[in-house]
Structure formats: C-alpha cells, structure tokens
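TICKET: design request
STATUS: open
ATTACHED STRUCTURE:
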C-alpha cells in the first residue's frame, strides 16, 4: 500500500510549538521506509499519526490515495510493533498472537493457520505455549512481530523494535527483518534513532531533526550526498570530519588548521558563487591518503588509536589544534603520540555553505 503525507503538522494540546512541521512524504508500496532521527525529534509522533493513535493537527494522510485523517485505528489495516513489545503477560505466546484475530471473530481454523504460518517464518514454533516471562528478549520480540504479522496488514509500523536487544541479537534481527520484508513484501515504516539500522535495512530513509524532514533518499545518497551538515554528521560512523574556512581564488583555506585544499574542477564550478565566503568542508574518515607524504599533506599527531579488527580508528589533531578522525586498515601500524602526514583526497570532499549549512 502507498502511504502519502501531505504537509502534515502536529501540535500537542497544551504545547506552544508544533512538534512536527511541513511533513511531505511518499512511501511507495513495498517500501521499507526508515524514519530516522535523534531522540525527541518527533519520530514516534509521526508513526502514531499514521497508525491513528495520535490526531493529525494539519495536512493530509492518504493510503492508496484515500484520505485517512479521521479513520479509526482499527479500520486502517496497519499493525504496529512497539519497543516494549507490549505482550500480555498472562497469555501464552500463541494466545498473544491469536488475540487480535479472535477479537475480530476470525474462525479458529484460520487463526490457527495464521499463527502457525507466522511462527514458522519467525522460527518460534518451539515456545508458542510458553508465557512471555519464560522466554528471552529476542524471542519476545519475535512474538511481538508475529502478533503484527497474523493480521496480514497492508502496512507494518515498527517503533524502535530492536532497542531492547543486545548488540549481537540486534545485528541478527536486522538481517531477519530484511529477509522477512523480502518474503512478505508488506510496506513497512520503521522508526529508529540508530543510523546503522537505517543504512542496512531501508529502501528509503527519512532523516528528521526537530520536527522537520532533513533529507529523504536511498542509504547511498545519504552517505555520498548529504544535503546539509546535520545529515552529514548524523549518517556514518565515525562521524564525518568538518572543517571551517574560506574559499578564495580556487582554494579552500582552513583557518582552524593552517591548511589549504584545492578542490576538483567540478567542485570549483559549484563553488564559484562562494568566492571570498565562509564555507565548510566535510570528509569521511576513510577518505584520507595516509600512505605517503605529498605536496599538500598536513601533519597530524595521533592521540587515541581504536582497534576494531578490520580497521583502526585514529583520533588526532592537526597542528595541535583541530580534531580529526581517520580510519585505516586494521593491519596498519599506528601508535599513540606518533606524528604522521596525511592528505585530503580531493575527490571525496563535501562542501557546505557555512551560514545555511546547506550542501553546495
Ligand atoms: P521521538 O520518538 O523522535 O523520540 P516523540 O515523537 O516521542 O519523539 O516526541 C517528540 C516531542 O513531542 C517531544 O518533545 C515529546 O516530549 C513531545 N510529546 C510526545 N508525546 C507527547 C504528548 N502526548 N503530549 C505532549 N507532548 C508530547
Ligand atoms: Mg520514539
């Protein structure tokens, strides 16, 4: 099902400010859309409006071109999974999954078939007759997913469903969710504050900050073409390096770190309008040339080396002033307090207007 939001705004009663403003968004049928953003930016509010659990202050919500603003939650054909799982503790996993169908007076036979089908996909057949308190967090999360699945909704709504799981299990469930989505092909809207979840699962990411959409696109677009400094810093780990300075006569002059960069011809074309102006340059940690000293290399001092196995993350300073983060292959020899020369790969630079913070 296609889900469309047209200029949606939300103002909670008793609050002076709008929590969400001008939300324009199209989620296509079969999309796995991840709504991403820091805590408090309005993600859950948005999801609950789609579910019908929060009222819509202004704008239009459409499912397959049908206006849904006033349709009650139970008639929206959506299923929601919460971070807390919200299972009934006194019921078995089977009954938890069967409950909403039983309420809808679906026949016992159909209920059984649906529960068993979901249990098989989620590999929870072995503990269907256990109570939620007797199974692990990961298993409970699957039951919560199963409960959403048996309804065969047109849209899945998931609100930080993996937040309560440990790191290993979270990684595993990420892959399972992608597999499940491939299998069911149900339009999915997934809320998280975790950029890794967004980057690994989404067919479409919606990054929000402070109630406003910052960028919408495919994960690769986010990584390679962030539309502003907020997006650039939110996506990717370690965080993108940002340097402030001035653009003059075809050169970026960084005041913070006594260094100059000459952008590519292509970048220079776009930077023409910024001659003499303050701009910012962004570069991801893996885009430095570390192998040899070049004409425009700068010297850095390494303060901390983080060994992650396949790579090392170097936290250092340029000219003892400006922080810099560099990643190198794990087998490279780098130690604390060493000095090294590095070069900015000018093919990999992101330029931003310092004033508006928008991409140039
Ligand atoms: P997120 O899910 O991104 O962490 P939320 O949508 O939960 O953010 O909250 C966004 C903002 O709306 C927060 O400032 C929060 O305090 C406020 N908020 C959430 N629910 C309510 C409510 N029922 N009444 C008033 N304000 C609320
Ligand atoms: Mg939330």
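STATUS: resolved
RESOLUTION: sequence designed for all positions
ATTACHED SEQUENCE:
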């Amino acid at each position: 099902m296609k889900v469309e939001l047209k200029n949606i705004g939300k103002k909670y009663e008793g609050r002076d400010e709008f929590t969400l403003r001008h939300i324009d968004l199209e989620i296509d049928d079969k999309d796995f859309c991840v709504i991403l953003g820091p805590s408090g930016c309005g993600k859950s509010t948005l999801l609950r409006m789609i579910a019908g659990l929060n009222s819509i202050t202004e704008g239009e919500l459409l499912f397959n071109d049908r206006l849904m603003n006033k349709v009650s939650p139970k008639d929206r054909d959506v299923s929601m999974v919460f971070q807390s799982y919200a299972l009934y503790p006194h019921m078995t996993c089977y009954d938890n999954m069967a409950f909403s169908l039983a309420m809808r007076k679906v026949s016992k036979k159909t209920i059984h078939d649906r529960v068993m089908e979901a249990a098989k996909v989620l590999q929870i057949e072995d503990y269907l007759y256990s109570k939620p308190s007797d199974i692990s967090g990961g298993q409970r999360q699957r039951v919560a997913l199963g409960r959403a699945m048996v309804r065969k909704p047109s849209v899945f709504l998931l609100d930080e469903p993996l937040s309560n799981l440990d790191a290993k299990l979270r990684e595993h469930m990420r892959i399972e969710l992608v597999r499940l989505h491939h299998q069911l092909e149900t339009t999915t809207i997934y809320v998280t504050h975790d950029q890794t979840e967004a980057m690994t699962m989404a067919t479409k990411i919606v990054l929000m900050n402070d109630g406003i959409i910052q960028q919408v696109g495919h994960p690769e677009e986010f990584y390679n073409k962030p539309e502003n400094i907020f997006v650039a810093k939110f996506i990717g780990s370690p965080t993108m390096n940002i340097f402030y300075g001035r653009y003059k006569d075809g050169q970026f002059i960084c005041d913070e770190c006594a260094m100059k960069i000459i952008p590519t011809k292509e970048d220079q074309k776009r930077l023409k309008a910024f001659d003499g102006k303050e701009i910012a340059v962004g570069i991801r940690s893996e885009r430095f040339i570390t192998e040899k000293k070049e004409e425009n290399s700068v010297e850095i001092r390494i303060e901390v080396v983080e060994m992650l196995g396949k790579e090392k993350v170097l936290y250092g300073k340029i000219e003892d002033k400006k922080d810099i983060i560099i990643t190198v292959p794990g087998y490279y020899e780098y130690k604390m307090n060493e000095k090294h020369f590095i070069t900015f790969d000018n093919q990999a630079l992101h330029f931003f207007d310092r004033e508006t913070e928008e991409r140039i």
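CLOSING REMARK: The mean pLDDT is 94. The longest helix spans residues 167-184.
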